[in-house]
Design goal:
Strands 1-2-6-5-3-4-7 form a seven-stranded mixed beta sheet, sandwiched between helices. Strands 9-8-10-11-12 form a five-stranded mixed beta sheet, with helices on both faces. The chain has a four-stranded mixed beta sheet with strand order 14-13-15-16, sandwiched between helices. A hairpin with a 5-residue loop joins β18 and β19. It is globular, with a radius of gyration of 22 Å. It is α/β, with parallel strands linked by helices. It has 14 helices and 19 strands. It has three domains: 150 residues, Alpha-D-Glucose-1,6-Bisphosphate, Chain A, domain 3 (3-Layer(aba) Sandwich), CATH 3.40.120.10; 199 residues, Alpha-D-Glucose-1,6-Bisphosphate, Chain A, domain 3 (3-Layer(aba) Sandwich), CATH 3.40.120.10; 75 residues, 2-Layer Sandwich (TATA-Binding Protein). α5 crosses α6, α8 crosses α11 and α13 packs antiparallel against α14. 36% of the residues lie in helices and 20% in strands.
């Protein structure tokens, strides 16, 4: 079977390395992006970082060859967290940054995502411009002679990123005992050093990457090992990063998980207390639990929901002037701290509240009651047809009317897989279950894969 090449999704271009995301795809992306950059700058500078996946070197070589072939000078940073690439892009005055990573996915996947000169992920329009050039990439005029780009490898900018993370800590972490789960990923070297420099006693786990163990039973998507280590060691808190370091999940001293919703609640209340929560507004996705919305309302804070993906959270924050937004997964954005999500910065904001309150993490979080929430995937042969199906749309409309709030129901197509994702939440578990069961059965009846 002929496989179609991957295209831009909600977080760059992703696929199975060397099967979907091949060196040829990376070469095309580099050439197409380089051509777009060359239209805007005579000799563009691009910084490139990657996580610890075994396929990183392979894809980095192809991508940078494509960029250099279009006259871009490329600086290779090596293994560095995604927010580090964003920071260094801005600090160096580069025209773009690129990260080779599949974030929290297993090691055999990989991805390529781009940042603009402002350190933010590219807009849909910018990605469309690059994507439009992929099929005819070999016909793009290429420079020759001295106009060909150069490629250099250097770590000289990474300490500056680490210092920027330390600088956003609002106080010393002296007296705190922490367990850090680095997911055998991009934070494995930097995170333990940074948190020790800030005064914490640090026990690091899953910080020995070998190219194939990234996110394997560890990190933000598998926090059980972290929670166990926290209780065994009697630590004050645990931090679980994902493979590329742009998100974090916390564990309190009792071994209970503190997810992105609870971290947003902690930080939102703190920012409002300090007069820094612009518009008394927090931006989150449709996946955030209804309990977060109710808890924020109790503090006079509004919640604005967006489609799934931190890029949509960032766009809404920029549009509304909000300073805080994020996802339940632990990917939080602080507009006053950095242009993109950063797990280390997020953890520092939460830990500052622990120290300010003089209470354990389990007591710091505002009361965020977790409402019954069900997410189910339906494998389909057509990801788009359901939108035009009168029966399905009527059922969705009726389901919204049954819930306390219409936006507590989400029906959406996966951006990368042949799946329709149905999520509902409310106070009553039986209502939520009945709605999800009915909608999934209806979608499967009309569009289910054989």
């Amino acid at each position: 079977m002929i496989r179609s090449e991957p295209r831009f999704g909600t977080d760059g271009v992703r696929g199975v390395a060397n099967e979907d995301l091949t060196p040829l795809v990376a070469l095309k992306l580099g050439a197409a992006a380089g051509h777009v950059l060359r239209r805007r700058s005579q000799r563009p500078l691009v910084v490139v970082g990657r996580d610890t996946r075994i396929s990183g070197d392979l894809l980095e070589s192809a991508l940078t060859a494509g960029l250099a072939s279009m006259g871009c000078d490329v600086t290779l940073l090596g293994v560095v967290p995604t927010p580090g690439v964003s920071h260094i892009t801005v600090a160096r005055g580069a025209d773009a940054g690129v990260v080779i990573s599949a974030s929290h996915n297993p090691f055999f996947d990989n991805g390529i995502k781009f940042f603009g000169a402002d350190g933010r992920k590219l807009s849909d329009a910018d990605e469309d411009e690059i994507e439009a050039l992929l099929d005819g990439w070999e016909r793009i005029a290429r420079p020759t002679g001295a106009d060909i780009g150069r490629i250099v490898s250097t770590r000289r900018d990474v300490p500056g990123y680490a210092e920027s993370v330390r600088a956003c800590a609002r106080r010393s972490l002296a007296g705190l005992s922490l367990v850090l789960d680095c997911a055998n990923g991009a934070t494995s070297e930097l995170a333990p050093a940074i948190f020790r420099d800030l005064g914490a006693t640090v026990n690091a786990i899953h910080n020995a990457p070998d190219g194939t163990n990234i996110n394997s039973g560890c990190g933000s998507t598998h926090p059980a090992a972290l929670c166990e280590a926290v209780t065994e060691l009697g630590a004050d808190a645990g931090l679980a990063f994902d493979g590329d370091g742009d998100r974090v999940i916390l564990c309190d001293e009792t071994g209970s998980v503190v997810d992105g919703d609870r971290m947003m609640a902690i930080c939102a209340v703190a920012l409002k207390r300090d007069g820094l929560l612009a518009e008394n507004l927090v931006v989150a996705t449709i996946m955030s639990n209804a309990g977060l919305e109710v808890a924020l309302e109790e503090h006079g804070i509004r919640l604005l929901r967006t489609d799934v993906g931190d890029r949509y959270v960032a766009e809404a924050m920029e549009r509304t002037g909000a300073v805080l937004g994020g996802e339940q997964s632990g990917h939080l954005l602080f507009a006053h701290l950095a242009p993109t999500g950063d797990g280390m910065r997020t953890a520092l904001q939460v830990l500052a509240e622990v120290l300010t309150a003089g209470q354990p993490l389990s007591q710091v979080s505002p009361c965020v009651r977790t409402y019954p929430q069900i997410l189910r995937n339906v494998r389909v042969r057509d990801r788009e047809g359901w939108r035009q199906n009168a029966d399905v749309m009527k059922a969705i409309e009726q389901a919204r009317a049954q819930l306390s709030r219409p936006d507590w129901l989400s029906v959406r197509a996966s951006g990368t897989e042949p799946l329709i994702r149905v999520m509902a939440q409310d106070r009553d578990a039986s209502t939520v279950t009945a709605i999800v069961d009915h909608l999934c059965a209806l979608i499967e009846k009309h569009y289910g894969a054989a």
